[in-house]
Write a structure and sequence with these properties.
The structure holds two protein chains of two kinds.
Chain A (H helix, E strand, L loop, with lengths): L1 H14 L14 H14 L1 H22 L2 H34 L5 H9 L6 H11 L5 H27 L2 H9 L4 H12 L1 H17 L2 H5 L5 H11 L4 H25 L29 H25 L6 H34 L3 H12 L5 H15 L7 H25 L3 H9 L4 H29 L3 H6 L7 H10 L3 H29 L3
Chain B lengths: L1 E12 L2 E12 L3 E5 L6 H9 L6 E6 L2 E5 L2 E2 L7 E4 L11 H6 L9 H11 L16 H13 L5 E5 L7 H18 L2 E6 L2 H7 L2 E6 L2 E6 L1 H6 L4 H7 L3 E8 L2 E4 L2 E4 L6 E7 L4 E5 L7 E8 L4 E8 L7 E6 L9 E6 L4 E3 L1
Parallel strand pairs in B: 3-9, 3-10, 7-8, 8-9
Antiparallel strand pairs in B: 1-2, 1-4, 4-5, 5-6, 10-11, 12-13, 12-15, 13-14, 15-21, 16-20, 17-18, 17-20, 18-19
Helix pairs in contact in B: 3-4, 4-5
The chains are: A mainly alpha, B alpha+beta.
GO molecular function (chain B): ABC-type ferric iron transporter activity; ATP binding; ATP hydrolysis activity
Protein name (chain B): Iron(III) transport system ATP-binding protein
Organism (chain B): Shinella fusca
């Protein structure tokens, strides 16, 4: 979800061009630059680690470890997964978004909510639900199927938001120029969806690269699952590190591809004033058959987890709600909150700089903050584990390292909200505080940070949501005895104790649901609805 | 010859009657304007002509063919009617040339030449062809939108407040340019606007809509000087409305005896446009005399408020030139040129 937020950040960039931002704040920049630079350096650790390991083991070893059939197979698996799952997600997401936003389908608002709700179900719980239902599920086809169900909301959200914003006058113009309704959709509407399609596809692509639990559960090998497998057999294996390198290369390739495909276009509405709300396409005799799509998606993405979880809970009765569940809830909440607060604090210097002192240095530092969020958790964890084992053994498997991992993975989420709300606190207020005798530091704390508090809270919440559903890095970094909902769920399902695992899945969904719905409501509000 | 014929068009949205039995005909080659305050139904009427909406009842006939008969009819993309909307509605993902060529038949061989011709027609430079819509000014966007619509060689062009987003100076310029281009191409045009002066200067036939009804249609001169009722009179320009008693073509009113049109007799309300009244200094206190109570200097056009003697009417506001402007407190006489209009 981090990248979804980044798209918003870019939108902010266009809304407040650099020239209009305040360049002359009186709170000195230097300490902020130093702090932001430290965080940026820290963000470079995973990438630096991969680079250093590659150099350290030597080209010959790299060749034997990377260029072998097994790695080729993993790369192919991952490529197939991306090539099939992303187009399918695009079709499903665009069709669903069109029906809920631009057609007269009955209960459109209900379907819109139901299309977003699957985000509250962690991907590995989706595959748990399907494997419980059809135990024979495995391989590429199943991987694609569950991945589309778990991730298509990442495309649905931005596509639906853009569809709501498109100026219907443009479509009228196309009709007056002789285009039939279907042609209007393909020649005028679809091209304007390019940016949300690129952003959403990138997000799904990165998730497909980094997801471990979903694919491990249905026995489909990807680069990420192979790294975790290697890691579990030996902690600092060059083989795992090298596959990590391949995985990072794939990520960077996806990021570059998206930049290339998205282009440097501006597809915003050209005219002035507000657009008329779009007419909903009359579906006519297809109005009832059209219900099949959103209803089927709701059944597959929500119905199946609901039914299987319900069945396991029913079978388990009260006995499965033991003290361990409560313990895991408490541990998860503590970790999520601590990680959320820490990540948000780490994001403050950068957020402040990018609003108050934009420039080349700031863009560079900010890029460091953002890229690390798109690295797979497995790579971040691998780097932290290897470095602590090698140089900082006392820190190995400590809370500090776990939290450090969370900070790296979720930095962009905290940054986006914080940056937007600092932009809402004008520098003039800070100056007024200083004119009334506050020191620069006091002015920052008492005025700007106070005003930025709502954005900071949103950042904490988003990071906490991520941590609650995080599995891979937590598995690799958590100290002995630390059991979050996700890791506890995972170890129980690994023992095929699906009944005992159910309460943990339910608790994860219960904790995520309010935040997910809030996110949807917020995205509608940013779209001006 | 009639090109477009609207017969008894009605359209309702929920509880709002957007159009109520509107009938209106537009001759081939003419320029018509539909004018009315916001919410009067003028945009709905335009969207029905374009085919974006269908009337609940009534018929739209275009060039001898029936386009809409109640809620059934020909969809927009098969009508061949051009439209230029409020802010151009250019396709943001296409260049200017691609926008203009959008409506061409597939694989048109002389595409580049036609784009160049259309650009020239709307007085844009060739260099514009590769630009993107967001790199154009508002006026340029409107010209591209016009060129795009012209590319289909429509017989009828609908203009949906195309000038309202532009600055005052540019607006007049664009209006003249569009007028010129359409005239040269021999295309019938219907302009929808809430700006009455725009409607009066653009069209040779104006229709006034109010609350979904067609109040009056006719030439700009007829509408301005012989409005059907006082709302229309005030909508189309400033007016001085006076109660009067009419006998033998002469109204007896606060301004003395004023010649009126028509053969109405008895009590009635008469209307004069302020430019028909002249303020002349006169301390003799004649019957049509009064005292200046306020003067607003406005450069070329100044406003003088005159309270008439012995009449319980609000002061009459008269636009006058800044030459020999009276001062507050001066005694003046109000002379009327031309005839007054009588509301029957």
């Amino acid at each position: 979800m981090g990248l979804l937020q980044e798209n918003t950040a870019e939108a902010l960039d266009t809304a407040w061009p650099a020239a209009q931002r305040r360049q002359d704040a009186r709170v000195p920049h230097a300490p902020m630059v130093v702090l932001a630079a430290l965080i940026a350096l820290f963000s470079l650790v995973p990438l630096g680690f991969i680079g250093w390991v590659t150099y350290d083991v030597g080209w010959e070893t790299v060749k034997t470890l990377v260029f072998r059939p097994r790695v080729g197979e993993l790369v192919l698996n991952t490529v197939y997964l991306e090539l099939i799952a992303i187009p399918l997600s695009i079709i499903v997401a665009v069709a669903t978004a069109f029906l809920t936003e631009r057609s007269d389908i009955p209960f459109a608002r209900l379907w819109a909510w139901l299309a977003v709700t699957p985000l509250a179900v962690p991907a590995f719980v989706h595959s748990y639900a399907w494997v419980s239902l059809i135990p024979s599920m495995h391989g590429l086809a199943s991987g694609v199927f569950v991945a589309v169900l778990a991730y298509y909301p990442f495309l649905y959200l931005p596509v639906a938001a853009t569809l709501r914003r498109l100026d219907p006058a443009v479509e009228d113009a196309a009709a007056s120029l002789g285009l039939a309704p279907a042609a209007v959709f393909f020649r005028v509407v679809l091209p304007q969806l390019r940016i949300p399609l690129c952003g959403g596809s990138l997000l799904i692509g990165l998730h497909l690269l980094s997801e471990y639990g979903l694919f491990a559960m249905i026995r489909f090998d990807t680069l990420a699952t192979a790294i975790v497998d290697q890691f579990q057999s030996s902690y600092n294996s060059p083989a795992a590190n090298m596959i990590g390198g391949v995985l990072v290369a794939c990520c960077l390739f996806l990021l570059a591809l998206e930049v290339l495909l998205r282009g440097n276009e501006r597809y915003a509405r050209v005219g002035t004033g507000t657009a008329r709300p779009a007419d909903r396409q009359k579906l006519g005799r297809f109005r009832l058959p059209a219900l099949l799509l959103p209803a089927a998606m709701a059944a597959l993405t929500l119905g199946v987890p609901l039914i299987t979880l319900g069945r396991w809970l029913w079978l388990g009765g009260l006995a499965i709600w033991d003290g361990a569940v409560t313990g895991a809830v408490v541990q998860t909440l503590v970790l999520a909150l601590a990680g959320g607060v820490l990540t948000t604090i780490a994001a403050v210097p950068m957020a402040w700089l990018s609003v108050r002192a934009p420039g080349r240095l700031q863009r560079l530092l900010e890029a460091c903050h953002y890229y690390v969020g798109s690295l797979p958790g497995v790579v971040v964890a691998l780097a932290l584990v290897s470095i602590t084992v090698r140089f900082l053994l006392p820190l190995y498997q400590t809370f500090a390292m776990l939290l450090a991992g969370y900070v790296l993975m979720f930095l962009p989420r905290a940054l986006v909200g914080l940056r937007a709300s600092i932009a809402q606190a004008p520098v003039e207020l800070e100056r007024a505080a200083m004119a009334l005798g506050r020191t620069p530091g006091q002015a920052l704390r008492q005025v700007t940070l106070r005003l930025a508090a709502p954005g900071a809270a949103a950042g904490v919440a988003l990071v906490a949501l991520g941590i609650t559903n995080e599995l891979t890095a937590t598995l690799m970094l958590a100290p002995n005895g630390v059991e979050t909902l996700a890791t506890r769920f995972w170890s129980l399902t690994s023992e095929i104790d699906y009944v005992a695992a159910a309460p943990y899945a339910v608790m994860m969904v219960a904790l995520s649901l309010p935040l997910t719905l809030l996110l949807h409501a917020q995205s509608k509000r940013t779209a001006g609805q | 010859m009639t090109l477009l014929d609207l017969e008894d068009i009605s359209k309702r949205y929920g509880t709002v009657q957007a159009l109520d039995g509107v009938s209106f005909a537009v001759g081939a080659g003419s320029r018509a304007a539909v004018v009315g305050p916001s919410g009067s139904g003028k945009t709905t009427l335009l969207r029905i002509i374009a085919g974006f909406e269908f009337p609940d009842s009534g018929r739209v006939c275009f060039d001898g063919a029936l386009l809409a008969n109640g809620p059934a009819g020909v969809p927009a993309h098969r009508r061949g009617i051009g439209i230029v909307s409020q802010d151009g509605a250019l396709f943001p993902h296409l260049s200017v040339a691609d926008n203009i060529a959008f409506g061409f038949e597939r694989g048109a061989p002389d595409r580049a030449r036609r784009v160049a011709e259309l650009l020239e027609m709307v007085e844009l430079e060739d260099a514009m062809a590769t630009r993107r819509p967001h790199q154009l000014s508002g006026g340029q966007q409107q010209r591209v939108a016009l060129a795009r619509a012209l590319g289909r060689r429509p017989r009828l062009m609908l203009l949906d407040e195309p000038f309202s987003a532009l600055d005052t100076g540019l607006r007049e310029n664009m209006r003249k340019a569009v007028s010129r281009v359409l005239q040269a191409a021999g295309i019938t045009a219907i302009l929808v606007t809430h700006d009455q002066s725009e409607a009066l200067s653009f069209a040779d036939q104006v229709a006034v809509l109010r609350e979904g009804r067609l109040v009056q249609a006719g030439s700009p001169q007829t509408l301005y000087h012989h409005p059907r009722d006082r709302e229309t009179a005030l909508f189309l320009g400033d007016a001085v409305l006076l109660p009067a008693f009419i006998r033998d073509g002469v109204a007896d009113c606060a301004l003395g005896h004023v010649a009126v049109e028509g053969d109405h007799a008895g009590k009635a309300e008469i209307m004069l446009r302020p430019e028909q009244i002249r303020v002349i200094a006169d301390s003799a206190s004649p019957r049509n005399g009064g005292r200046v109570v306020d003067v607003q200097f406005g450069g070329a056009v100044c406003t003088v408020a005159v309270a008439l003697a012995d009449v319980a009417l609000p002061p009459i506001l008269i636009k006058t030139s800044s030459v020999a402007l009276p001062a507050p407190g001066d005694l003046v006489r109000l002379d009327v040129a031309g005839r007054a209009h009588v509301f029957a």
